[in-house]
Amino acid sequence: MTNIVLYAGLAVLIVLAALIIVILLKKNAGTRGLMRAGQEAKEVLEQAKAQSEKIVKDAQQQAKDKLASVDAEFEQRTREKNRKINEMERRLIHKEENVERKFQGLDRKEREILAKERRITQREGELDLQDEKVNALIKKQMEELERVAGLTQDEAKGQLIKKIEDEARIEAVQVVRRVEEETRAKSRQLAGEIISQAIQRSAAEHVVETTVSVVDLPSDDMKGRIIGREGRNIRALEMATGVDIIVDDTPEAVILSSFDPIRRETARLAIQKLVMDGRIHPARIEEIVENVRADLEEKIRLEGEAVAYELRVQNVHPELIKLLGKLHYRTSFGQNVLQHSKEVSFLAAAMASELGLNTQVALRAGLLHDIGKAVDREVEGTHTELSVELCRKYGETEAVIQAIASHHRDVDFPSVEAVLIQAADTLSAARPGARRELLETYIKRLEKLEGLAKGFEGVSKAFALQAGREIRIMVEAQKVSDDKAALIAKDIAAKIKSDLDYPGQIKVTVIREMRAVEYAR
Predict the structure, then answer these.
(1) Cα(184)–Cα(191) distance, rounded to whole angstroms?
(2) Which of 219, 297, 311, 461 has the fewest other C-beta atoms within 10 Å?
(3) Residue 126 is inside which H or E element, if any?
(4) Quick one: 221 and 349 in the same domain?
(5) What's residue 210's pLDDT?
């Protein structure tokens, strides 16, 4: 309706505009054009009237169409809402039916549970009575068993627990032995390859080196010149070098005696120079000894530098270089310590290279692991402690120091490189001909090894073989089973490791022999 009013107002405005135009035309055109203007105005008015009627009709038709559309949409929405309401009513009715069925099921289950509870309560009462009867019967049987066996319950438990513990230990030994055999089978091949390659690449001499303490002379007449008038020359030599000079019946030789290998070497070189020079008197002796001492210090430095250069170990402190040179004149069980240090360094580096480890740490630790032996006669402490102290003092890395500290297992191994240093040290010391040992010390070590094994229960005999590298133990077959024999071998190996000092490793073999003897009469 609002559109119809709007269109009607618009038509009136158009008619008014046309009248105004006609009036204006009349005023402007004058009397002659008055009729024509009136006619035109009439035509314009009729056109405007027709147009306004058309507009009114169109507006009425649009209003009717829109009203019909709104009615249809309202009816559609009403039907949709009614449908949804009906659907919700159906679902609610269905839910109500389900709830009702569930309530009925719960009532039934509740009745069943109550019945079961009554039965369980009755059963519990019966079981309590049976428990009382069983406990009384068990108590009676236990009293009878204790009377027959002559053991109390606690004593029987103790025996049972001990038996279970023994069986568990034996089973554990069996498992450990199987795992050890599997691990040993796999690791022995790899370790053998690595060690054999390292040894093959080592150019070590298989001989025992000893410090020279005998000076050869061109003739026995030279002994008198060395002694001098009233022994002046020999006293001057002993005072200047700090070495005892022994002149005996040994043909064309004198013997030098001193605990200090540097002093012995100084005295040896001085006597050789005096013999070559021919002028032997106290003043000349002092001069030659001073010259030899200076030359020997330079030679010691050059020896240390040569070793470092040979092994390609760089940035070694000059004081450590001098101490390395001193090791050339130091022996351990007849083995030259400098040569031993070179072997350990080379072997450790070769094994580290095969395993993809730090070869520089292995090289340096192997070369410096016995550096303390150069000063162990001058400073108190073990050579391992002195080696650690010197390396720390002269700026070696902590990895090198820790590897040196553990090479005799004084501390736990901090790294794989440390394990390689200990293995290389053992290889160098244990190779054939590397070291010699005093007979008395050797015999005592073997007796101690055999005595340690005989201290175990069930051991009847023990024999040290292969210069103490293996010990074979005979056990009593009646007292020791096969599995317990393996346990004894493991315990003896642990005891040897904790109580004895020995180079390399000691193989422990436990033998259990069972003999059946009968007599035919």
Answers:
(1) 10
(2) 219
(3) helix 34-149
(4) yes
(5) 45
